[in-house]
Structures are given as structure tokens and as C-alpha cells.
Amino acid sequence: MKVFCLEAGQSNLSQKRLISPFPVPLLNRRNGHLLTELFFCGRHFGITLILTTQKLLAVPSGMLTNCSQMALFRLKTKRELDGFLDNVNSIDDLPQKYRFATEKQFSFLCMDFTKNKAYRCFEEELG
User: For a disulfide at 110, which of 17, 32, 51, 119, Cβ 3.0-4.6 Å?
Assistant: First the structure.
């Protein structure tokens, strides 16, 4: 079994949070499947992984479909929006909820896939 720990100087998994300075392109390099494996197997060790990216299409689709929560700001291209909608289909009327949640400047769509609910800016539940 492989156990990965990315925080400097840490030799065990007693710390259950991981803040990674690694950019998302690391996920696509030849030896860069470390974060992908941590994403899929980390929950067995009680690890919470928070991934931020400016390019949604750079994130492997398996990671998108296995998220428990996601915050999504307005996407720049139709291609990104289509890719997102293809990978996330557990919330009803998601295209309409996305448009409503992101219509105002700096607003975003927050999705909780454990409850299949969507919110605008963490506060307003979208029914």
C-alpha cells in the first residue's frame, strides 16, 4: 500500500489536512498521478483534499464525479461548461441553477453532492 504525505517534514498521517502547493498540471505529467491517487484513496486515511483550479478541463473527469462538494464560478468558455455538465449530473436542472447562481458578478454555484443540493454563494438554496 502506498501512503503519500506532501507536507514538508511530515512522516505519518496524523495530520489530516493537506494543503498542496502543486499546480493542477502535475496531475497530467508522467509521474504526476500522485494527487489523483491521493484524491481517490485519501478518504480511507481521513484526508480531506481541497483542489483549486482555473481550468476545469485540466481536472480528470473521475475527480469531478467523485467530489463531495464543489464551488464553481462563471466558466469562461462553452466547452468548459459542456464538460462540467457532462461530468456532473446528480443535481436536477443544473444548467438553469448554474446560470442563476453565476449571473451576478463574483457570485458562484456551490454544490453538495452528498445531499444533491445546490446553493448560490453558500447561502441561498436553489430549489
Answer: 119
Close Cβ partners of 57 (under 8 Å, ≥ 6 residues apart): 79, 80, 83
Tell whether 122 and 64 lie within a shared domain.
yes
Q: Give residue 8's domain range.
A: 1-52
Q: Which residue has the higher pLDDT, 99 or 25?
A: 99
Per-residue pLDDT of 106-119, as tens digits, reads 999 999 988 999 99
HEC string of the chain equals CCCCCCCCCCCCCCCCEECCCCCHHHHHCCCCCHHHHHHHHHHHHCCEECCCCCCHHHCCHHHHHCCCEEEECCCCCHHHHHHHHHHCCCCCCHHHHHHHHCCCCCCCEEEECCCCEEEECCCEEEC
Does residue 45 share a domain with residue 91?
no
Contact indicator for 31, 2 with CB cutoff of 8 Å: no
Residue range 7-59, pLDDT digits in tens: 433 444 444 444 444 444 545 555 456 777 777 777 777 777 777 888 888 88
